Amino acid sequence: MHKFLPIAYFEDKFVPFEDAKISVATHALHYGTAAFGGLRGIPDPEDPGTILLFRLDRHGDRLSKSAKFLHYDISAEKIKEVIVDFVKKNQPDKSFYIRPLVYSSGLGIAPRLHNLEKDFLVYGLEMGDYLAADGVNCRISSWYRQEDRSFPLRGKISAAYITSALAKTEAVESGFDEAILMNSQGKVCEATGMNIFMVRQGQIITPGNEQDILEGITRDSILTIAADLGIPTCQRPIDKSELMIADEVFLSGTAAKITPVKRIENFTLGGDRPITEKLRSVLTAVTENREPKYQDWVFKIPLNG
User: Fold this and answer.
1) How far apart are CA 80 and CA 95, in angstroms?
2) In the predicted model, what is the mean pLDDT of residues 237-263?
3) Cα(218)–Cα(55) distance, rounded to whole angstroms?
4) Distance between CA atoms of 168 and 173, rounded to whole angstroms?
C-alpha cells in the first residue's frame, strides 16, 4: 500500500489528501488530456530539518511546456512555488515522490482542448526504490512507442502511458520485471517509464531525442556527469542486438534513478558494471548535496523556515 502525504494541492488550495477528488465526468479521465511530472525529495542527510529536491527548476519547466500541448498556460515559476509550499505543509521525514499534474478539469464530453477548463494539482507519497536496486530482467515488448508525428512526445502526456501500462503488464505476466519498447523504425527507444543506456567498449550510448524518447531529466543529468568524469558518450540509434551483447545496460528515471539490467530476453549480461556503479554513486551523492559541482541541481527547502 502506498503511504500518501497528508496534504494535497487541489483547485487552488491545500486540502487533506482524501478531500482532493474530481468528478467522474472530468475530461482528463476520459480522454487522457493531462500531463504530469515527477520528482523526488529526501531529508538532507546532514540536516533532517531541510528537504532536498532534485532539479526542481527543470521539472517545473518541463511540466509548463507539457501544459502548452493542452492549451494551458501555467508558468514554471507557479509550479515551483506550489511544490515548495506543498513540501513545507507536509513536513515529510522520509524519502518521497511528488506528482504534479496539469489536466483538463472541465466536464465536457467532446475530445477537444479549446474552450475547456484546466487545472493543476500536486500530491505525494513516500517512496523507496521503484525497481530492484540490484537489477532487473527485461523483455522486448510487442508494443511500440508512439511517433512524434502522431503524438506530442516532447510532453509528458498522460495518455501516452497506456502503451507503458500494456508493455509493463505484458513483461511482468511473462516472467520479467520490465519492458523495453522499440520505436516505429525498429530501434531501441526506452523502457516503460525510464530512459535506457548501454555501455560498449567504455562508451556510454543512449538513443537520441530524435528516437521518439521522452527527454528525461535524469537522462540529461547522467550525460552531464559522464562527460565531467571523462567517460565518452554518444546519442544515436541502437539496435536490439546491440543491447544483448552490451557490456552494461541500465535504466534511468526519477523513480528508477539508475537501475542496472541483468538480462534481456534470454541473454544474460555481465555482472561487472563499473561505469553503471560509478554513475550511480555520483548521482546519489549529487541528490544528497554531497557534490559541490552540482549544488545548483539541488533545491533546499527548510521545513521550519
Assistant:
1) 19
2) 94
3) 9
4) 9
Residue 99 neighbours by CB under 8 Å, 6+ apart:
36, 37, 38, 122, 123, 124, 125
Placement of cell 534470454 in the chain: 266
When mean pLDDT is compared across 131-140, 177-186, 275-284, the lowest value belongs to 131-140
Dist. CA 87–CA 75, nearest whole Å:
19
Question: What is the predicted pLDDT for the residue at 129?
Answer: 77
Domain with CATH 3.30.470.10 in the chain: 7-126
Task: Tell me which amino acid residue 46 is.
Answer: E
Give CATH superfamily name and number for 136-287: D-amino Acid Aminotransferase, subunit A, domain 2 (3.20.10.10)
- 169: cell is 503488464
User: CATH assignment of 7-126?
Assistant: 3.30.470.10
**Rounded to an integer, what distance in angstroms lies between the CA atom of residue 278 and that of residue 213?**
24
Enumerate the β-bridge partners of residue 52. 42, 300
Band the pLDDT of 270: cuts 50, 70, 90. Answer: confident
Calpha distance 106→22 (Å, rounded)? 10
SS3 for 239? coil
Question: Are 26 and 10 a contacting pair, CB within 8 Å?
Answer: no
What are the pLDDT digits (tens) for 111-140?
A: 999 999 999 999 999 998 777 778 999 999
Please compute the mean of the pLDDT values over residues 223-227 and round it to a whole number.
97
DSSP letter for 174, please. T
With cell 511517433, the residue in question is 147
Joined together, the cell numbers standing for residue 200 give 560498449
How many Å apart are CA 66 and CA 29, to the nearest integer? 17
Cell matching residue 165? 501500462
pTM above 0.85, yes or no: yes
